[in-house]
């Protein structure tokens, strides 16, 4: 039994005449009559009464036609669903990210993706760079935003592109003596109690601070340790000391804080977008399109990496 047999039976029930039904279907009457007869033999019951007044469904025919309508509706829905899935409009996207990515650029990306793909189920996981890398390699994540390039076993099989450059800034209470200044120097920082982050992703940031202040700097040795940039800002607002973190912190200002540049300018590790090179899922492609739209300077680098992957 094929879908066309169901359509033939429904057309015959609608038009109550073999000739009219055949005309509506665009076929000749004899093939339609044969197809209906074949269908009745397969079902094992007479589906239509042939009378002088017309052709009408039997009780068996009515029961069959009710299911046939639902079956054709399901087939049509399946075609629609398949098309939506192929365009990345449905499905699941598992994203791992570091906390500071929620300052920039992740909020704009997630808003746009949620608006354009409302039926995609987003699974969001705040993870360290090492855990995100392991998740990508194991197939537990589809995409990740990390601090610096993914590291560890299997990282060589990932496609990675920078999506955000950053540098060190200082944050302090508005009553701090340095508040109101456009910048603070390394010499000034060495005389302050510092607030730094020390999470799993901070070794690279710590290396930047050691290079800036000195590996055995008393200011670093006596620094207050925060879990993330939000805690750095909160402690600085409380007057604990001068917080040091990425310029992305400027996206989360508080009325009682003051931000200023650190001189000399100290670059920090880039935010990196990564995904498995072998992953060609439509949902991932849709997410990458959103990245291109929200981060225009990333598109060329992303397309270049994808072309290289195709030739490897």
Automatic annotation (TrEMBL):
Keywords: DNA-binding, Transcription, Transcription regulation
UniProt-listed InterPro entries: LysR_HTH_N, LysR_subst-bd, WH-like_DNA-bd_sf, WH_DNA-bd_sf
Pfam families from the UniProt entry: HTH_1, LysR_substrate
All residue ranges annotated as the HTH lysR-type domain in the record: 1-58
Annotated GO MF terms: DNA binding; DNA-binding transcription factor activity
UniProt xrefs under PROSITE patterns: HTH_LYSR
Signal sequence coordinates: none
Domain of life the protein comes from: Bacteria
Gene Ontology CC entries for this record: protein-DNA complex
Cited Gene3D superfamilies: Periplasmic binding protein-like II (3.40.190.10), Winged helix-like DNA-binding domain superfamily/Winged helix DNA-binding domain (1.10.10.10)
PANTHER family reported for this sequence: SMALL NEUTRAL PROTEASE REGULATORY PROTEIN (PTHR30346:SF30), TRANSCRIPTIONAL DUAL REGULATOR HCAR-RELATED (PTHR30346)
Family: Belongs to the LysR transcriptional regulatory family.
Protein name as annotated: LysR family transcriptional regulator
Species for this entry: Nonomuraea diastatica
């Amino acid at each position: 039994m094929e879908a066309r047999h169901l359509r033939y039976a429904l057309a015959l029930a609608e038009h109550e005449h073999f000739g009219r039904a055949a005309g509506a279907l665009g076929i000749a009457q004899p093939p339609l009559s044969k197809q209906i007869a074949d269908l009745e033999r397969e079902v094992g019951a007479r589906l239509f009464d042939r009378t002088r007044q017309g052709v009408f469904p039997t009780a068996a025919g009515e029961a069959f036609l009710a299911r046939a309508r639902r079956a054709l509706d399901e087939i049509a829905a399946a075609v629609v669903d398949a098309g939506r899935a192929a365009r990345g409009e449905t499905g699941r996207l598992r994203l791992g990210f570091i906390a500071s990515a929620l300052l920039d650029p992740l909020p704009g990306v997630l808003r746009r993706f949620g608006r354009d793909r409302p039926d995609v189920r987003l699974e969001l996981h705040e993870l360290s760079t090492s855990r995100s890398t392991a998740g990508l390699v194991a197939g537990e994540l589809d995409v990740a935003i990390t601090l610096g390039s993914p590291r560890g076993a299997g990282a060589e099989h990932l496609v990675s592109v920078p999506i955000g450059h950053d540098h060190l800034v200082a944050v302090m209470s508005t009553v701090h003596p340095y508040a109101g200044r456009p910048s603070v120097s390394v010499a000034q920082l060495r005389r302050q109690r510092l607030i730094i982050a020390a999470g799993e992703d901070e070794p690279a940031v710590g290396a930047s601070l050691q290079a800036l202040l000195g590996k055995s700097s008393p200011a670093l040795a006596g620094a207050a340790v925060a879990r993330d940039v939000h805690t750095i800002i909160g402690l600085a607002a409380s007057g604990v000391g001068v917080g040091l973190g990425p310029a992305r912190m400027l996206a989360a200002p508080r009325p009682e804080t003051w931000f200023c540049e650190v001189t000399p300018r100290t670059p920090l590790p880039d935010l990196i977008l990564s995904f498995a090179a072998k992953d060609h899922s439509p949902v991932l492609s849709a997410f990458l399109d959103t990245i291109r739209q929200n981060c225009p300077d990333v598109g060329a680098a992303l397309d270049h990496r994808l072309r290289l992957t195709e030739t490897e």
